[in-house]
Amino acid sequence: MALDYFEPLPSTIPQMADNRVTPEKIDLGKALFFDPRLSASGVFSCYSCHNLTTGGDDNMETSVGHGWQKGPRNSPTVFNAVLNIAQFWDGRAEDLKAQAKGPVQAGVEMANTPDNVVATLNSMQAYKDWFADAFPGEAEPVSFDNMARAIEAFEATLITPAPFDAFLNGDDMALTDVQKEGLQLFVDKGCATCHNGVNLGGNGYYPFGLVEKPGADILPEGDKGRFTVTETAMDEYVFRAAPLRNIAVTAPYFHSGKVWDLKVAVQVMGVAQLGEEVSDEEAVKIVAFLESLTGEVPEVTLPTLPAETANTPRPTAEVVPN
Amino acid sequence: MALDYFEPLPSTIPQMADNRVTPEKIDLGKALFFDPRLSASGVFSCYSCHNLTTGGDDNMETSVGHGWQKGPRNSPTVFNAVLNIAQFWDGRAEDLKAQAKGPVQAGVEMANTPDNVVATLNSMQAYKDWFADAFPGEAEPVSFDNMARAIEAFEATLITPAPFDAFLNGDDMALTDVQKEGLQLFVDKGCATCHNGVNLGGNGYYPFGLVEKPGADILPEGDKGRFTVTETAMDEYVFRAAPLRNIAVTAPYFHSGKVWDLKVAVQVMGVAQLGEEVSDEEAVKIVAFLESLTGEVPEVTLPTLPAETANTPRPTAEVVPN
């Protein structure tokens, strides 16, 4: 039954037709992912908001960025993100390499520019060598696009096999009885209508508040979701269904990050999307099932990054007004 | 000759009489070192300013902390710091466990309180278990003091053997000819008077500007160094001699972080401390020698931290005025 709705993680690193994942690209991407010099201030790296020690996100309602500004939406986990059909809460980036360019340039996040990033990377010989190795035969391997490609390749390795995968792969003992009851409820109540596939979500767009709009604390009026991307009235307050892998370790919830308790989040979803009161007892079982989606984090050894040179642009904490 | 002034790194993790380093303490300390929830905002961990990918420091003049405030002094590398006689630029912490309590509480850094840290740690069962394992037999293993002890234990493992150690251990080929000339100049000119011992510094206090005070850009008048600790007139503008291991990868230099070029830093030191103009040619050789102090960073695998619970204090980006 479960395989009608869900799919286990692949056993190898997902490959992308337009960005073949190679060991050289992974290594370069790992260095870039951890390098705070991709931000104007030198304070933030990809890792800052997609912290691999805390579920691949940052445990905040919305992230703190350049100049102590707060970002507009909750930072999603980078784990298994490669398997989403598109990136960001509104799906505005078609893949991780498109996504990677966003925060680097966002004024409230890393506040950098492509030119400054390329100048930074070109100032360090090791980066020039690594880009040449990762993008062999290219005339100008060090580029903002290739930075994004390498980061995507590294992120493609961040796959977290969970007990639920073992269950889908045939191990009936991988879930507890309560978790199995939660799974049954998850399907019977209709959660799996949107939260399905390999990431139990991340693969479709739905109005938040399909049946009943949650309060403005959870669904702030000013953020119209995918409407901003498509400018189509029917996309008002539409968001990508949240992928649910590692959901139990990535509070707070929703694009607004306003709900910290997973049980409450389940109950909010019941009313908002299904018009159904999920009882405490049911919600506890569904949460138990969701806990079976907490996966094993791949071992990540910290890279050693090249040192700045005289040509490296200096960090600036200055906040430039828009 | 070199062994008259310098000492190679120990081949095992340095032990402290009052804080025995055990595997359990190291593992706990690593988790704490990487945990941004030790800061009030959830933005900063020890790793933020002592970044293990970039020389154990943060490549900024002075660090950016809570509320985007700038710290008063350049962040020193955590690598080999266990071997300094005291911590901070003014030596105000007698060891790393005393040091570790500082930034966690500093309003311009992590802006947290011991009570809030302990509440945070006690809210997660895994931390309670890890503290019990690391501090067996203690009635209340989860404490701010034990947090600091565990962090010290992890930091004691961050030792970076360098070509200069191989040289001191008898490998004449470990330094190039230019590096050997630089070493000779380093000793002959008197640099080794203050920069000696196992960390080539970090073991004594000296006035910055012993012979001639550098300009206020490099030595800001408002920061009187060790005077603030001892309140003794002779300690005005006195600082701990900077330990020089990994100096080539930890720009910018001095407590003010105002000099980015190591060659310039060497020349500033020549005039300020020795009353001697170091020529470009000499400075290049000394820098070549200093590059032999860039060590191999130990392999650090990221920990997986426990998830917050309903009892975990929530992060706050709010800046509380003093």
TrEMBL record, chains A, B:
A GO CC term assigned to this protein in UniProt: periplasmic space
Cofactor(s) demanded: heme
Protein name: Cytochrome c peroxidase
The organism of origin for this protein: Rhodovulum euryhalinum
PROSITE patterns recorded: CYTC (PS51007)
Binding site residues for heme c 1: C46, C49, H50, H66
Pfam family, one: CCP_MauG
Ligand binding (heme c 2): C191, C194, H195, M269
Domain Cytochrome c: 24-155, 177-294
